[in-house]
Write a structure and sequence with these properties.
Blueprint lengths: L11 E4 L2 E5 L1 H14 E7 L3 E4 L2 E4 L5 E4 L2 E4 L2 E5 L1 H11 L3 H10 L1 H14 L4 E7 L34 E8 L7 H14 L5 E7 L4 E13 L1 H4 L16 E10 L7 E9 L5 E3 L5 E3 L9 E2 L4 H22 L2 H13 L8 H11 L4 H14 L4 H12 L5 H9 L1 H16 L2
Parallel strand pairs: 8-10
Antiparallel strand pairs: 1-2, 2-11, 3-9, 3-17, 4-5, 5-8, 6-7, 9-10, 11-12, 12-13, 13-14, 14-15, 14-16
Helix pairs in contact: 3-4, 5-7, 9-10, 9-13, 10-11, 11-12, 11-13
Length: 423
């Protein structure tokens, strides 16, 4: 176990929106909390109104009983960082400007959003939110809510407190809703049906995506060439003493329009838990479908079953394809082909890799330290440095995006080192 990464029994649960390194039961509990609080409504632009940095959705609130009968109140939703980006995208407003308005001059935020909503008459949007009835799994006062537009929780998201809900996303009305909880349960069912013995080693949820790591300890391969000179920067364990790599894959889904549902093969290095992600073999499904009807979304059982059957099928395909010893061995041989190039100018090479692949600043600053502690001065050492650097990152999206670039970083480092040697 990497001591720099929180133990799965002690996850970093920050809000109803996010979790880091959660166990499977903790992930399911969080997703069920979200599921119970979700609000999905297709609304015309004329039913949307910016108010105090929030988005008001007419007729999407709780049912109200009056002498005139039953009607629905309006829902007031506070945008998350992801929802801000969705508003900017759908209304063609520069995101940096919109965020500055909401942070410093909320009246300008309201004016800009309402002006462009007025110009969008005839268009419809899918509003994805969470109602104020949701509970904060950290034990806070609530999941949603009021507060000033500039307030944000660590890692982004809406502040806690009463008085409203969370706007998670503003999407196209052709977005096909496939929720994280349903994806997870269907994928697990597909894995079970395939007869695979696997472990869920870590699970994360951000505002943007869910990520679940699946590892099979039964399907392993030796990688002595790749790990001959590597030392874990976390424990000091040496790859030469235990050059084992396990088969596995990564399940990912977005409820907020931030990419496809995917299952991607991922090999895990036993000595350090570094993940080698093979993006070119990913199984993916785009969240697009027919145009959704107006009003609150209530999927029919047949419609939902059809979408989730595909998830289960892809999970079975992943087991058959990615938990195959021949696949693992062939993947390792391809990785090792680029892994043995000596990196004689590590600072320049790592700076080139970080700049080319646009690593986050937090990762770029520590990459060289991980490379040095790893002790492998080859391009394969760059792969290990990138993937080990990803592990302690606190933001799930940044961690997974960095890990997913490890193999590409190795190839890029090999080409750069070769260029320097022959310049």
């Amino acid at each position: 176990m990497n001591p720099n990464r929180p133990h799965p029994d002690r996850p970093h649960l920050r809000t109803i929106l996010t979790a880091r390194n959660a166990s499977l039961p903790e992930l399911v509990e969080l997703l069920r909390t979200q599921h119970a609080a979700k609000l999905d409504v297709v609304a015309p632009a004329t039913d949307l109104h910016a108010q105090g940095g929030n988005l008001l959705v007419r007729g999407a609130g709780e049912a109200v009983l009056s002498p005139e009968g039953v009607s629905r109140s309006d829902a007031l939703l506070r945008p998350s960082a992801t929802a801000e980006a969705g508003i900017a995208d759908k209304l063609d407003i520069p995101l940096a400007y919109l965020r500055r308005c909401r942070r410093e001059q909320v009246e300008l935020f309201d004016a800009n959003v309402n002006t462009w909503l007025g110009a969008a008459a005839g268009r419809r949007f899918l509003v994805r939110g969470l109602t104020a009835t949701g509970t904060d799994p950290t034990g806070g006062a609530g999941a949603a809510g009021g507060g000033r537009p500039g307030e944000e929780l660590p890692g982004g998201g809406a502040p806690t407190g009463g008085g409203g809900g969370i706007l998670r996303a503003l999407l196209s009305d052709s977005f096909r809703i496939v929720d994280n909880l349903d994806v997870l349960l269907s994928a697990l069912a597909g894995i079970r049906d395939a007869g695979a013995t696997v472990e869920i080693t870590a699970a994360d949820v951000s505002e943007r995506r869910m990520w679940v790591k699946v590892v099979s300890r039964e399907i392993a391969a030796q990688a002595p060439q790749l790990l001959a000179h590597y030392t874990s920067p976390f424990t000091g364990a040496r790859g030469v003493d235990n050059p084992v790599v396990f088969a596995g894959f990564l399940i990912s889904n977005s409820e907020t329009g931030q990419g496809k549902f995917t299952i991607t093969p991922r090999l895990e290095v036993q000595v350090c838990e570094n993940g080698l992600v093979l993006n070119q073999h990913a199984l993916a499904e785009v969240h697009l479908g027919g145009r959704l009807p107006d009003g609150l979304i209530r999927w029919s059982a047949d419609t939902q079953a059809t979408a989730l059957a595909l998830v289960g099928k892809k999970a079975r395909d992943a087991v058959a394809s990615f938990l195959d010893p021949a696949f693992v061995t062939a993947a390792l041989r391809r990785i090792e082909a680029d892994a043995g190039v000596e990196v004689t100018a590590p600072t320049a090479t790592l700076e080139h890799v970080a700049k080319t692949l646009r690593f986050p600043a937090e990762a770029a600053e520590t990459l060289l330290a991980h490379f040095i502690r790893g002790g492998d001065t080859t391009s394969g050492g760059v792969l290990q440095a990138v993937t080990s650097t990803a592990q302690p990152l606190t933001a799930p999206d940044a961690a997974y995006q960095l890990e997913a670039q490890g193999v590409e970083a190795m190839s890029l480092a090999a080409r750069h080192a070769y260029h320097l040697a022959h310049a």
